[in-house]
Design goal:
With 199 residues, the protein is α+β, with helices and mostly antiparallel strands. It is 41% helix and 21% strand. Strands 1, 2, 3, 4, 5, 6, 7 and 8 form an 8-stranded mixed beta sheet that branches.
């Protein structure tokens, strides 16, 4: 299979957010951040839209041309920075997504606190595939395109796997666990993973 991939632009926001919404609405982290199933259908697309915009502004978004999959990447410098609005970013995220829900802000603070620093790297914020297209290697193709660039440029890569079965996939792509899994307060585990570039 050869997936046709293009760099997304602002005009692709609706398509990309739709893919992410379908792919992650029942994800353990999404369900923890937005625990009320009655509010999730309205709030979850806003959460995905915020992540899309952060990636578009501070990295790039890769989109499958057939509308089946999308990957959000950030270019993280060696010096510590907070993507998505700096110190005010988590509060802004909460205000946009679900103002009465402190877990939105807590999640942003929590993940930022555990993000590795000290080396520039490519950060795979999210990769989403439409549910009826999952299991066909589409996400792997999206990720591999960027990992090949990382290898050429000697750039490490980082991600947080949000389900217990995801790390096995990422290990096949050269990622290894980075420390112990991180547990959200009274919530699911997240699995930080790091990939050194291949010679």
């Amino acid at each position: 299979m050869s997936l046709r991939i293009r760099r997304a632009a602002q005009r692709d926001a609706e398509a990309a957010v739709g893919i992410l919404d379908e792919a992650f609405r029942d994800d353990p982290v999404s369900c923890w951040v937005l625990p009320d199933p009655a509010r999730r259908p309205a709030a979850h697309p806003r959460l995905m839209a915020a992540f899309f915009q952060i990636s578009l502004d501070e990295g790039h978004v890769d989109l499958a041309e057939d509308g089946s999959a999308v990957a959000l990447w950030l270019d993280v410098p060696a010096e510590p920075q907070q993507p998505g609005g700096g110190d005010d970013g988590p509060a802004q995220l909460r205000a946009y997504v679900d103002p009465d829900n402190e877990r939105v802000e807590l999640m942003a603070h929590f993940m930022g606190a555990h993000h590795p620093h000290g080396r520039a790297h490519a950060y795979l914020m999210m990769v989403g595939v439409l549910p009826d297209r999952q299991g066909r290697g589409l996400g792997t193709e999206l990720i591999t395109a960027v990992l090949e660039r990382c290898d050429r440029e000697g750039l490490p890569a980082y991600l947080e796997a949000s389900s217990e079965r995801s790390p096995a996939l990422y290990r096949r792509l050269g990622f290894a666990p980075l420390g112990e899994p991180v547990r959200l307060p009274d919530g699911p585990q997240v699995f930080p993973m790091w990939r050194e570039p291949k010679a």
